[in-house]
Structures are given as C-alpha cells and as structure tokens.
Amino acid sequence: MKRLSISILSVAMLLSLGAASAFAAPAAPVQATKVDNVIQQVGSLYMYWTAKPGTHYYRLVLRNLNDNHLYINNDILPSTQTGYSSVGLPYGPYRVWIGAYTSTGQFLGGEEKIITLNGHQSVALNP
To answer: Measuring CA to CA, which residue among 39, 60, 43, 59 is closest to residue 116?
Structure first.
C-alpha cells in the first residue's frame, strides 16, 4: 500500500510539472542588432635571415592565406639587407617566402614558412 501511494504521488507530481511547463509564458523574441564598429586585430611581422654567400639580391613574398592578399609581392631586397618588417597585418595565417639570387638572376636557394600571426612576431628564414 505504501509503494502504491508513493507511485501515485510520483505520477501526480510529474503530470503537474508537465502541465505547468505547458502553460508557461513564451520567451520574448530575440532581436538581431547590427554591429557597426568591429575592430579588426592587427599585428606586425619581422622577417629575418642570415646572408647567403654569392647573393646579389633577395626576393620576398608575404601572402595572407585567408583572403590571398599579397602584402609583399616579390619585393627585391639588396644582398646587404637581412631583415624586413611589415606592420598593420590582420591576424591569421600567412605564407612567407624568401629567395636568394645571383647578379645574373640564378636562383641560389629559398625557404617558405607558414605562420599564424596573432600579435607582434618574428620569423627566421634560411634562403
């Protein structure tokens, strides 16, 4: 008898909980709000390398892999230069490439790196 009364009480409670939730007031509708002032995070990248013997000039490429934008497009740098800074770059993945060339345009070597920019960073390259 005790078990039967507990079971009946449990069923009655479940039914009353279900009925209460069925009559609950509907939630207020959610409204979208236009965001006008989104601030894109930007950083900087310092690319540096050790001078390669026999090099007359270097070519440097920096490409954003999210939108394919070239920030540095095969810029020609003198053999005496061993570093380059780029600022105002949106956060995200980039492809960095450097190549070393002789005075006649012969390719001596290069290196490509994929980096994820998320602040002020540097990357070492080995042409």
So the answer is: 43
